[in-house]
Design goal:
alpha/beta; Rossmann fold; 6-stranded mixed β-sheet; 4-stranded antiparallel β-sheet; 8 helices; globular; binds adenosine-5'-diphosphate; binds magnesium ion
Length: about 240
């Protein structure tokens, strides 16, 4: 079942075309990786999907609803940015933020924050000062903040690019756990090819603003349909 559909979406900054006629269907509960070299348009696409930015053309259909004409959809999505913002407050307050702005009551907030901290492997860390956490813990806290209000879609922009391998493995576990335990549909932009193989169900290859191939994980690694995506998968493209 499709949760999200991108129809003929394009975007430009000034005279530069950054996304060209993107068509893509995202299935409920899948982990979909958007891969491509730096500058391909991955972040721009995620920002449009998160309804942060309006595309120059095309439509976003969320659960059969036109996102351009339907209010209240933002609260059903969540985006984790490449460099998370950390408030100078406790871990609890950092994670609770999205619940407070959505008007949840105190008991619901405590329950949901505690569940989210468990999911990301930071149980009982609520009282710690957020700015005292290590890099890996900070990223896990950012995940807790992103999932605490149970979004249907989680958009991840290169969530492991600043981490060492041990922390990358932990984050990959957390991504899979979020999908398995909460059924969240996850889109992840990355240029880490081995990571795609480890966690994604399907993948879309973005090159110079064009989605040149959408394939299953087996498909992209064994029989890529496009010579340029094959080269990217083999690591022959500079990025
Ligand atoms: N706000 C902006 N203003 C002007 N150009 C932008 C802006 N955001 C992105 N771009 C340009 O759009 C292209 C795609 O950027 P981006 O979506 O960040 O790619 P990626 O995330 O794949 O590295 C790049 O050439 C970038 O310089
Ligand atoms: Mg980017």
């Amino acid at each position: 079942m499709e949760l999200f559909r991108v129809e003929n979406v394009c975007m430009a900054f000034g005279k530069k075309d950054v996304l060209k006629n993107i068509n893509l269907g995202i299935r409920r509960g899948e982990i979909f990786a958007i891969i491509g070299p730096s500058g391909a348009g991955k972040t721009t696409l995620l920002r449009i999907l998160n309804l942060f930015e309006k595309p120059l053309c095309g439509n976003l259909i969320f659960n059969g609803l036109d996102a351009g004409k339907t209010g209240g959809l933002r609260r059903r999505m969540s985006m984790l940015f490449q460099t998370p913002v950390v408030f100078n407050a406790s871990v609890f307050d950092n994670v609770a933020y999205g619940l407070k702005v959505r008007g949840f009551d105190k008991r619901a907030i405590e329950k949901k924050v505690s569940e989210a901290l468990n999911t990301v492997g930071l149980p009982g860390m609520g009282k710690e000062k957020a700015r005292m956490l290590s890099g890996g813990e900070t990223q896990r806290m950012a995940f807790a903040r992103a999932i605490v209000y149970d979004p249907e879609i989680l958009l991840l922009d290169e969530p492991t690019s600043n981490l060492d391998p041990a922390n990358v493995a932990k984050i990959e576990e957390i991504i899979k756990r979020i999908r398995d335990e909460r059924g969240t549909t996850i889109l992840i932009a990355t240029h880490n090819i081995p990571q795609v193989r480890r966690i994604a169900d399907r993948v879309g290859v973005l090159l110079n603003g064009e989605l040149i191939e959408v394939n299953s994980i087996e498909g992209i690694f064994t029989e890529p349909e496009d010579e340029r995506s094959a080269a990217f998968i083999r690591g022959e493209m500079i990025y």
